[in-house]
Amino acid sequence: MNRPLPAGATGTRSSPGSSEDLLIRVDEADREIGTVPKTAGHLGAGVLHRAFSVFLFDAAGAVLIQKRAPGKMLWPGYWSNACCSHPRPGEAVEAAARRRVREELSVECRLRFLYKFIYQAPFGEVGAEHELCYVYAGYAVGSLTADPAEIADHRWLQPDDLTTAITANPDHFSPWMKLEWQRITTDYLDDIRQEAEG
Questions:
Q1: What 3-state DSSP class applies to 140?
Q2: Cα–Cα distance for residue pair 162/166, rounded to 1 Å
Q3: Is the pLDDT of residue 113 over 80?
Q4: What is the mean pLDDT of the chain?
Q5: Minimal CA–CA distance to 12: which of 3, 1, 4, 21?
Q6: Which residues belong to the active site?
Q7: Taking the alpha carbons of 115, 117, 122, 128 in that order, is the dihedral positive or negative?
Q8: What pLDDT, on the 0 to 100 scale, is given for residue 43?
Q9: Does domain 22-190 have CATH number 3.90.79.10?
Q10: Which terminus of the chain is more exposed, N or C, with fewer CB under 10 A?
């Protein structure tokens, strides 16, 4: 399979008539402390907010990666995992993850919570991610159709091939995906493979 090549969230609305989504602000213990408009939450060093990241596998154990659409504010055109977004205020994180997989990829999925962590990553002068991120692994059910507003391209890779691609071209991948994939391959991949085989 071809190696990824280099590249050049939904929420409730902040006010009636506004297209700006709201992020859930949290402290380091994951306690909610308010909301912030999506754009504002990603400016400067970023405001710590709740997020999720989904890795989808198929029955053969391949993992789905997607190329972020060129219109994305942060890391446009970079390769990342199947789905990354934010829960709406009042929405359970796993429910939000299932919703966004359905909206972005047109498939249903069963998810397994793996872990959550805090990371902060700047994207030049544009802004930054600063997230308390819930990480899930799951299996897609149905025929995948990617939303072009979110996803420019997608591929299924065997885990070892994805690890090789990240090692060879780390600057082609989103920072959160690299952190999460390292943890998944170290602590969870064997169990995920066994579940797929079962």
A1: strand
A2: 6
A3: yes
A4: 90
A5: 21
A6: 84, 131
A7: positive
A8: 98
A9: yes
A10: C
